Amino acid sequence: MKNSKKDIRCITKEELGRFFQDHKRPSFRVQQVWDWLWRHHVLDFNQMTNISTVERKLLKEHFSITPLRIHTLKKGADGTVKFLFVLDKDKIVEGVLIPQLNRLTACISSQVGCSLACKFCATGQLKLYRNLTAGEIYDQVVLINQYSIKKFKKSITNIVFMGMGEPLLNFKNVLTGIHYITNSDGMGMSGKRITVSTVGVVKMIRKIAELNPNFNLAVSLHSAHEQKRNQIMEINKTNNLKELKGALQYFYEKTKIKPTFEYVLLKGVNDSQEDAKLLMDFCKNIPSKINLIEYNSVPNSGYEKSDVKTTDRFLKLLTKNNILVKLRRSRGEDIGAACGQLATQQKL
């Protein structure tokens, strides 16, 4: 039988306040319940020990808590850990913990599947099942952080929304999730350590700019050639490079936050010296930085990783022209946890 109760983490604090008011309960209970849900990550009303049994019963009668849970995890040879999180109805999303010298980065998902069908991405081969709730987004961070503390004796230092899905097509829940990750009601983490990655949803980039975001923005560019980007990224047919460039210029003007361009090097597709020059031209007048990414094998994609010589030439041309650029080496490829690989080893 389907649970008809609303997940309490899908209502606002104001809505909870009205609920307690309607049931003639003291208003200070709102903050107590809110602390249990978001600061202490309690997933059972019975564990809310500073509210009365009557009030706990009242909450259980009207609400549910539907958590995301760890299904399995896989450890890579380089220390990368991939988490398979199970949701309701046995759907799976994936997250990754990437340990580095001075960083512990959590890569998290925003949707179950994806609707954007980028040709080189494993998640793009799936259909979109649904958006994650703010609670499910938050749960990924909390669970990865708990593992990090247990395994590495310290908390995660960074969060990237670069897992399954397009964050800006789940705008409300992603922003709400970030609110509780950064707010004193929740984890209290600095927004400067959070990066939201988008394929370039122009309308939503402009909307974020208006909201004075407390997080960083990354854009999956992958080509600055209109026809090539059309071929490998469906989004470019409705959000073309000219529109994207205008939105990013607007974003920087409003926020003074430098976007990061993500650029996967695909052999014989977007890795020529001409491609590098087009990339430099696109970045002109947008204060930004570039992450060059090694392509990671995805079944049935038809793409290959650029060779070392071509990658080196591409990188050197950008560096020579004073472009702030970094080559991101693959992490977790042996467990299907590297960039673009999520969902290759687990059917939904």
Quick take:
The protein has 348 residues and is α/β, with parallel strands linked by helices. It contains ten helices and 14 strands. The two termini are 22 Å apart.
Provide an overview of this structure:
The protein has helices at 13-22, 29-39, 53-62, 134-152, 171-182, 202-210, 226-232, 241-255, 273-283, 308-320; strands at residues 6-7, 63-64, 69-75, 81-86, 92-99, 104-107, 111-112, 130-131, 158-161, 194-198, 216-220, 260-265, 289-294, 325-328. Mean pLDDT is 90; it is low at 335-342 and 344-348. The longest helix has 19 residues, at 134-152. A hairpin with a 5-residue loop joins β3 (69-75) and β4. With 348 residues, the chain is of the alpha/beta class. It has ten helices and 14 strands. The protein folds into two domains: 6-64, DNA polymerase, domain 1 (Orthogonal Bundle), CATH 1.10.150.530; 69-335, Alpha-Beta Barrel (TIM Barrel), CATH 3.20.20.
What is the CATH class designation of the largest domain?
A: Alpha Beta
Profile the largest sheet: 10 strands, mixed
Tell me the fraction of residues in β-strands, as a range. Answer: 15-25%
User: CATH architecture of the largest domain, please?
Assistant: Alpha-Beta Barrel
The spatial strand order of the largest sheet comes to 3-4-5-6-9-10-11-12-13-14
**DSSP strand tally:** 14
Question: If helices are DSSP runs of H or I spanning 4 or more residues, what is the number of helices?
Answer: 10
Q: What number of structural domains do the residues give?
A: 2
Shape: elongated
Mean pLDDT score: 90
Radius of gyration of CA atoms, rounded to a whole number: 21 Å
Question: Can you identify the CATH superfamily of the largest domain?
Answer: Aldolase class I
H-E string: EHHHEEEEEEEHEHEHEHHEHEHE
Q: Would you identify the regions where 5 or more consecutive residues have pLDDT less than 50?
A: 335-342, 344-348
